[in-house]
Amino acid sequence: MGVKERKERDKLEMRDKILQSAHKLFLEKGFDQISLRSIAEAIEYSPATIYLYFKDKNEIFHALHQQGFGMLNQAFQPLTQIANPFERLKEMGKAYIQFATTNPEVYDLLFIRTEPMEHLATCLDDQWTEGDRAFDVLLQTVKGCQQQGYFVGLDTQNMSMVIWSFIHGLCALGISKHISHVKEARDNQMVIDEIMNNTYDTFKAMLERLKS
Amino acid sequence: MGVKERKERDKLEMRDKILQSAHKLFLEKGFDQISLRSIAEAIEYSPATIYLYFKDKNEIFHALHQQGFGMLNQAFQPLTQIANPFERLKEMGKAYIQFATTNPEVYDLLFIRTEPMEHLATCLDDQWTEGDRAFDVLLQTVKGCQQQGYFVGLDTQNMSMVIWSFIHGLCALGISKHISHVKEARDNQMVIDEIMNNTYDTFKAMLERLKS
DNA sequence: ATTTAAAACTGAACACCGTTTATTAATTTT
DNA sequence: AAAATTAATAAACGGTGTTCAGTTTTAAAT
């Protein structure tokens, strides 16, 4: 009777087991240190077995990608409470940076690595729904700010892109070890965080001045 | 007599030959499609030979990294002619975006990939001189802008970081195929360029407003 | 000119990687 | 109990970066 159902459950369980192991290895060793073989070993199955549940490695990473977006959305959840759009915008940036610095590998997967995007492009149903949704949240917030006199005369979409570009650029540089110039010190994570915070504070100060 | 000198010349020539082949393959096939074996084949030597001239693959990429900075500096060369710092700043951004979109693989190597930075970290003499220098150019330009009434009251270094973060973020998103939301269209390079230009125009408009 | 020392180069191997296929083992259906 | 279906795997394929014991080429010394 319920044998078919059980099999489906088993299938999903196995998928999940694979993903969990992948996620764990991913956090421990970073993106390009994970191999199908290491995942297979972790779940105590042969490497070939994984191919019964996933088309290829990219599909696994795409699944992790979606999972990562779940984490990001969760981090953004509390912000919906903030009624004032400009305050919300500022807190969004803070939360975004916080997310990126505490989950650098995940951020890398979500916004820097091209593999998940490339896999997406092969999916026929080619669209980055998670990305679209997240960007729309930003868009609405910016629109709210404009209704309160910020950024007037500037296109909402372009302004949102400016903000996203800045925040992403800051996080990307921070994560990828490309901030070393700013002489204060080198390679010390504490210091990099400090630079990122200072930079973000300055950006906020800029935005403040754009109120008419 | 001059045999030692000739040998040294030969050694450098070989290094250069390897680098040239690497650079060519790099432009043709992209970063992670280059293998030492393909480089070896291109120069018609055995893979093992390469290890007589480079410690490992990362050292090759670090050399390409430096070479890429040479290209970037060259692209920035004409800008020194522009006396007005704010005009120069705006053209710098334009040139930077131009460079990134026409040489995406090089940009990727210079500012996104972590491998060259990681190799650098193992170099004892650990410092990113090329990066430092380029950032200093930006810093001086921002300082010039401030002397003309722009961004007053904002820290020069932080302001420079804001600008670099924005431009880098824009380029990184453009290159890495993460711009697809902005609904106008999908995956069309023309459109991505357009979005980048619009975003940059908006950023410039923002900066314009920050004159006291 | 011949031997010797050194430098340049390479074939073959090692330990990995993602992926495919033929085969075996387990389970469900008949 | 037999047949059919499903699940799992061992083994192989073609690829990767890297190492090292040898060979070949070159220069120096005799």
Can you walk through the features of this model?
Two copies of one chain form a homodimer. With 212 residues, chain A is an all-alpha fold. Chain A folds into two domains: 1-54, Orthogonal Bundle (Arc Repressor Mutant, subunit A); 57-209, Orthogonal Bundle (Tetracycline Repressor, domain 2). The first copy, chain A, is 72% helix and 0% strand. The first copy, chain A, is built from ten helices and no strands. Chain A has helices spanning 3-29, 36-43, 47-50, 57-76, 85-102, 104-112, 115-121, 129-147, 156-175, 189-209. Chain A starts with a helix and ends with a helix. The model of chain A has no long low-confidence stretch (mean pLDDT 91). Chain A binds a DNA duplex (30 and 30 nucleotides) through α3.
Number of strands of chain A: 0
* CATH top level assignment of the largest domain in chain A: Mainly Alpha
Q: What is the terminal-to-terminal distance of chain A?
A: 69 Å
Quaternary organization:
homodimer
Instruction: Tell me which CATH architecture of the largest domain in chain A applies here.
Output: Orthogonal Bundle
**Strand-residue fraction of chain A?**
under 5%
User: How is the main sheet of chain A built?
Assistant: none
Q: Tell me roughly what share of residues is in helical segments of chain A.
A: over 70%
Q: What's the number of structural domains of chain A?
A: 2
Rounded to an integer in angstroms, the radius of gyration calculated over CA atoms of chain A is 20 Å
CATH superfamily of the largest domain in chain A: Tetracycline Repressor, domain 2
Number of helices of chain A: 10
Shape of chain A, please? globular
Give the CATH topology of the largest domain in chain A: Tetracycline Repressor, domain 2
**Unreliable runs of chain A, pLDDT <50, ≥5 residues?**
none
Largest interface: A-B, 49 and 49 residues
SSE string of chain A: HHHHHHHHHH
Structural class of chain A: mainly alpha
Average pLDDT figure of chain A:
91
